[in-house]
What does this fold into?
Amino acid sequence: LGTWFKRRLVRMFDAALVAGNPQRRYYESLGLPRENIFIGYDAVDNDYFARRANEIRTQAAEIRNKYDLPQRYFLSLGRFDAKKNLATLIRSYRRFLDAGPRTKTHLVMVGSGVEDANLRNLCDELRLPVYNKMALRIDKRESNTENSPPGVHFYGFRQIDENPIFYALADAFILPSLREESGA
It folds into this structure.
Protein backbone atom coordinates (compact mmCIF):
# COMPACT_ATOMS: atom_id res chain seq x y z
CA LEU A 1 0.00 0.00 0.00
CA GLY A 2 2.82 2.44 0.89
CA THR A 3 4.65 2.15 -2.43
CA TRP A 4 1.40 2.33 -4.41
CA PHE A 5 0.46 5.54 -2.59
CA LYS A 6 3.93 7.08 -3.12
CA ARG A 7 3.82 6.33 -6.86
CA ARG A 8 0.43 8.03 -7.13
CA LEU A 9 1.73 11.02 -5.20
CA VAL A 10 4.93 11.31 -7.26
CA ARG A 11 2.85 11.38 -10.48
CA MET A 12 1.70 14.85 -9.37
CA PHE A 13 5.31 16.12 -9.20
CA ASP A 14 6.97 17.98 -12.04
CA ALA A 15 10.43 17.62 -10.50
CA ALA A 16 12.26 16.67 -7.31
CA LEU A 17 15.28 18.03 -5.46
CA VAL A 18 17.09 15.17 -3.71
CA ALA A 19 20.18 14.73 -1.53
CA GLY A 20 22.15 12.33 -3.72
CA ASN A 21 22.19 9.46 -6.21
CA PRO A 22 20.51 6.91 -3.92
CA GLN A 23 17.54 9.27 -3.53
CA ARG A 24 17.55 9.98 -7.27
CA ARG A 25 17.29 6.22 -7.98
CA TYR A 26 14.47 5.93 -5.46
CA TYR A 27 12.42 8.68 -7.11
CA GLU A 28 13.08 7.09 -10.49
CA SER A 29 11.71 3.82 -9.12
CA LEU A 30 8.56 5.72 -8.17
CA GLY A 31 8.11 6.87 -11.77
CA LEU A 32 9.67 10.35 -11.91
CA PRO A 33 11.82 10.83 -15.06
CA ARG A 34 15.56 11.03 -14.28
CA GLU A 35 15.94 14.37 -16.13
CA ASN A 36 13.45 15.92 -13.68
CA ILE A 37 15.38 14.83 -10.57
CA PHE A 38 18.02 17.26 -9.35
CA ILE A 39 20.67 16.68 -6.71
CA GLY A 40 20.67 19.49 -4.18
CA TYR A 41 23.44 21.47 -2.61
CA ASP A 42 22.97 20.22 0.96
CA ALA A 43 25.74 17.67 0.76
CA VAL A 44 29.40 17.60 1.72
CA ASP A 45 31.79 18.43 -1.10
CA ASN A 46 34.66 16.14 -0.11
CA ASP A 47 36.87 17.38 -2.94
CA TYR A 48 36.54 20.98 -1.70
CA PHE A 49 37.50 20.01 1.85
CA ALA A 50 40.44 17.85 0.70
CA ARG A 51 41.77 20.58 -1.59
CA ARG A 52 41.41 23.29 1.08
CA ALA A 53 42.99 21.05 3.75
CA ASN A 54 46.06 20.55 1.57
CA GLU A 55 46.35 24.31 0.97
CA ILE A 56 45.97 25.05 4.67
CA ARG A 57 48.59 22.51 5.74
CA THR A 58 51.17 24.27 3.55
CA GLN A 59 50.56 27.43 5.61
CA ALA A 60 49.97 25.73 8.97
CA ALA A 61 52.17 27.99 11.13
CA GLU A 62 50.74 31.20 9.68
CA ILE A 63 47.13 30.01 10.00
CA ARG A 64 47.63 28.67 13.55
CA ASN A 65 49.00 32.08 14.48
CA LYS A 66 46.16 33.99 12.79
CA TYR A 67 43.45 31.90 14.49
CA ASP A 68 45.41 31.34 17.70
CA LEU A 69 44.95 27.60 17.26
CA PRO A 70 46.73 25.19 19.59
CA GLN A 71 49.51 23.06 18.18
CA ARG A 72 47.56 19.93 19.16
CA TYR A 73 43.79 19.71 19.50
CA PHE A 74 40.68 17.63 19.21
CA LEU A 75 37.93 19.27 17.15
CA SER A 76 34.18 19.43 17.57
CA LEU A 77 32.38 21.38 14.85
CA GLY A 78 28.60 21.74 14.73
CA ARG A 79 25.52 23.12 16.46
CA PHE A 80 25.54 23.38 20.24
CA ASP A 81 22.35 21.39 20.68
CA ALA A 82 21.51 18.78 23.36
CA LYS A 83 21.35 15.93 20.80
CA LYS A 84 24.96 16.69 19.84
CA ASN A 85 26.03 15.29 23.24
CA LEU A 86 28.76 17.89 23.71
CA ALA A 87 28.55 17.75 27.52
CA THR A 88 29.72 14.13 27.32
CA LEU A 89 32.58 15.25 25.07
CA ILE A 90 33.67 17.88 27.61
CA ARG A 91 33.46 15.40 30.50
CA SER A 92 35.48 12.90 28.47
CA TYR A 93 38.06 15.57 27.69
CA ARG A 94 38.38 16.28 31.42
CA ARG A 95 39.03 12.54 32.02
CA PHE A 96 41.55 12.54 29.17
CA LEU A 97 43.47 15.39 30.83
CA ASP A 98 43.31 13.71 34.24
CA ALA A 99 44.69 10.48 32.78
CA GLY A 100 47.59 12.27 31.06
CA PRO A 101 48.48 15.38 33.08
CA ARG A 102 51.42 16.21 30.79
CA THR A 103 49.35 16.32 27.61
CA LYS A 104 49.35 19.51 25.58
CA THR A 105 46.19 18.59 23.63
CA HIS A 106 43.39 21.15 23.71
CA LEU A 107 39.71 20.87 22.74
CA VAL A 108 38.52 23.27 20.02
CA MET A 109 34.76 23.76 19.71
CA VAL A 110 33.46 25.52 16.62
CA GLY A 111 29.75 26.28 16.59
CA SER A 112 26.96 27.97 18.47
CA GLY A 113 23.51 27.21 19.78
CA VAL A 114 21.21 26.93 22.75
CA GLU A 115 23.69 24.84 24.79
CA ASP A 116 26.51 27.40 24.63
CA ALA A 117 26.11 28.76 28.18
CA ASN A 118 25.61 25.26 29.63
CA LEU A 119 28.81 24.01 27.99
CA ARG A 120 30.82 26.95 29.31
CA ASN A 121 29.36 26.43 32.79
CA LEU A 122 30.29 22.75 32.61
CA CYS A 123 33.88 23.71 31.77
CA ASP A 124 33.93 25.93 34.86
CA GLU A 125 32.52 23.12 37.03
CA LEU A 126 35.18 20.74 35.73
CA ARG A 127 37.91 23.36 36.22
CA LEU A 128 38.79 23.41 32.54
CA PRO A 129 40.37 26.60 31.22
CA VAL A 130 38.05 28.32 28.74
CA TYR A 131 39.46 30.36 25.87
CA ASN A 132 37.03 32.69 24.12
CA LYS A 133 37.93 32.86 20.44
CA MET A 134 34.56 34.14 19.26
CA ALA A 135 35.94 37.30 17.68
CA LEU A 136 36.77 37.14 13.99
CA ARG A 137 40.18 38.60 14.72
CA ILE A 138 41.96 37.21 17.75
CA ASP A 139 43.68 39.83 19.91
CA LYS A 140 47.10 38.26 20.53
CA ARG A 141 47.58 40.45 23.61
CA GLU A 142 44.68 38.60 25.26
CA SER A 143 45.64 35.12 24.15
CA ASN A 144 48.75 33.03 23.85
CA THR A 145 47.65 29.48 23.17
CA GLU A 146 51.19 28.20 22.71
CA ASN A 147 52.00 28.67 26.40
CA SER A 148 48.49 28.16 27.82
CA PRO A 149 47.43 25.06 29.72
CA PRO A 150 45.17 22.66 27.80
CA GLY A 151 41.56 23.76 27.83
CA VAL A 152 38.44 24.34 25.78
CA HIS A 153 38.54 26.95 23.00
CA PHE A 154 35.17 28.33 21.90
CA TYR A 155 35.38 29.75 18.36
CA GLY A 156 31.68 30.36 17.81
CA PHE A 157 29.87 29.91 14.51
CA ARG A 158 32.11 30.05 11.44
CA GLN A 159 31.20 30.18 7.78
CA ILE A 160 31.81 27.15 5.56
CA ASP A 161 34.94 28.68 4.01
CA GLU A 162 36.67 28.74 7.43
CA ASN A 163 35.73 25.21 8.50
CA PRO A 164 38.52 23.46 6.53
CA ILE A 165 41.04 25.41 8.63
CA PHE A 166 39.84 23.74 11.80
CA TYR A 167 39.58 20.27 10.22
CA ALA A 168 42.97 20.39 8.48
CA LEU A 169 44.99 21.23 11.59
CA ALA A 170 43.17 19.04 14.13
CA ASP A 171 44.63 15.83 15.55
CA ALA A 172 41.14 14.29 15.52
CA PHE A 173 37.56 15.26 14.78
CA ILE A 174 35.07 14.07 17.39
CA LEU A 175 31.35 13.70 16.65
CA PRO A 176 29.67 12.59 19.92
CA SER A 177 26.10 13.08 18.65
CA LEU A 178 23.29 10.91 19.90
CA ARG A 179 21.76 11.02 16.41
CA GLU A 180 22.35 12.74 13.06
CA GLU A 181 19.28 12.97 10.84
CA SER A 182 20.75 15.18 8.14
CA GLY A 183 24.47 14.93 8.74
CA ALA A 184 24.58 18.46 10.18
Notes: The beta strands are 16-18, 37-39, 73-77, 106-110, 130-132, 152-156, 172-173. The first helix runs from residue 2 to 10.
